[in-house]
Amino acid sequence: MTMTYGRHIGHALKDMMEKDPAFRTVAYFSMEIGIKASIPTYSGGLGVLAGDILKSNADLGVPIVGMTLLYHRGYFNQSLDDEGYQKETAVSWQPERELRLLPNQVSVYLEGREVKVRTWVHELTGLNGYPVPVYFLDTDFEGNTADDRSFTWYLYGGDQRYRLCQETILGVGGLRMLRDMGYNSLETFHLNEGHAGFLTLELLREQGYESYDKIREQIVFTTHTPVPAGHDHFHYELIDRVMPSVFSGQLRRMMPPEGVSMTELGLRFSRYVNGVSRKHTEVSRNMFNDPKIDGITNGVHPGTWTAPGFKRLYDAYAPGWQHDPGRLVQALQIPDEEIWKAHQAAKLRLVAKVLELTGQQLDADVLTIGFARRAATYKRADLLLTDVKRLLSIASGQVQFLFAGKSHPHDEGGKAMIRQIYRASQELGSTIPIVFVENYDMEIGALLTQGVDVWLNNPKRPREASGTSGMKCTLNGVLNFSVLDGWWIEGWIEDVTGWSIGPESKEAELIDYDESQDAADLYGKLEEKIIPAYYRNREKWVSMMKHTIALNGSYFNTTRVVREYCEKAYGVSFRGL
Ligand SMILES: *Cc1c(COP(=O)(O)O)cnc(C)c1O
């Protein structure tokens, strides 16, 4: 009796601690957070990673909260016209269906106007029921000018001014909102990329502009871009126009006279900095001339990206795998035919969806290669088409391809690449079916990374900071065929977990190299290794599937990533399982 009573008190206390803002110690800020396709506030890898990391924090019971902006018109919806030109339309969605509006309201000052900010919340629930709230800041409501309302419309839309306003709302408004909601015990602010770096200004204001060291002690910064041009940069002329003078003056004291690089701001004002793969960490140390930059290799959330059939198998052969994906080493024990059946089920689901979306019928018994990523030129979606004659001689009747990916509306090079794929798909017809699936999002991402046989990735080295879509594949026994860049350098064992394309770059710098090698290697391995293994050595193929699950799926997951952040960056312990 007493014990039961005691346990009730225990539960009530636990419940209170889990919900009470006063017990949260970490806040995770990201310009985009991708939780699911029906909350279209993400564009790609950065946002999906943020969502996966927050989900794993919930699984592990880490006292964290997420902070981002609400984008009423999302990134954009992509469709192709009948010549393969990308057309962009605004996303239309109803936040009230997915998120809950809170009564809290704060203000930020932009261009001398008071802009009111409110917030919505989506609560993630971990495997053991632990809640992690994710907040979406919003200025689109009555009381703000039409212009100010539009600040939370588009992700990565608008000009520099629009971007600066958004980043001020995220960094300054985000912290104000957290305080308004009662988060007064936060010890760590994690900046997922530099966009929320103006948080430092608000922290300084709170502390009476006393000491930079006090600010540094509270900030953790993750950098994601190995290309200097990929980093946000604002000139003081614009900053002076947009921000209140206390903030612009403060920034001048903190940063060099040329302007404010958000990455630089993150690097200078944080106690811990990390890159997102071993290679990227090396490149970042070199690029920023900072040997202290640490590395935490990215991962993906197992519960989100594993196909239902494989979930069932792992539950049977590797119980507890979602709490501890390290247990997936047991995948080697799963009988071959079970692996194959689970894979074919995922492949059939993909084939059905492709038929539904495009009217094109693919064959579930034909080797299927997937390629889906942001259509930027360095990703080289067209590498496969370098020598179409060669491709025809190798792959006719034996391979079918699925492509997906959006190009940023201003990236003409990326759009041209999409057109090239589209044209090739028409020219090659049914000899080598190439299907472009429009409007790549998390739902299509999941279908592809679960249902194809091989995942192709061939960016120019070393521009891929990490890449995570290939990691989703490893949880589903889909084999990676990739350039040695980003995470794949760490996951690749030739003929065991997948195949490489081209040599590894030994330099920690961006340099041009002979790209024709990559194309030759791509064709060579397709012809000599991949097609023969798929059609004539099923045993070897399935063995590779199992090894990719056991050796890669067990490691490249956000459960391991979050444990590393807790240990090395946050200094908090999770509640354990
Ligand atoms: C996983 C995912 C990404 C990230 O993939 P990369 O390997 O970094 O290209 C991008 N977009 C969507 C929709 C995803 O699901």
Automatic annotation (TrEMBL):
Class of the enzyme per the UniProt entry, highest EC level: transferase
GO-annotated molecular function: glycogen phosphorylase activity; pyridoxal phosphate binding
Pfam families: Phosphorylase
Co-factor(s): pyridoxal 5'-phosphate
GO BP term (any one): carbohydrate metabolic process
EC number(s) reported in the record: 2.4.1.1
Catalytic activity: [(1->4)-alpha-D-glucosyl](n) + phosphate = [(1->4)-alpha-D-glucosyl](n-1) + alpha-D-glucose 1-phosphate
Alphabetical UniProt keywords: Carbohydrate metabolism, Glycosyltransferase, Pyridoxal phosphate, Transferase
Entry-linked InterPro entries: Agluc_phsphrylas, Glyco_trans_35, Glycogen/Maltodextrin_Phosph, Pyridoxal_P_attach_site
Primary role: Phosphorylase is an important allosteric enzyme in carbohydrate metabolism. Enzymes from different sources differ in their regulatory mechanisms and in their natural substrates. However, all known phosphorylases share catalytic and structural properties.
Family indicated by similarity: Belongs to the glycogen phosphorylase family.
Name this polypeptide is given: glycogen phosphorylase
Gene behind this protein: glgP
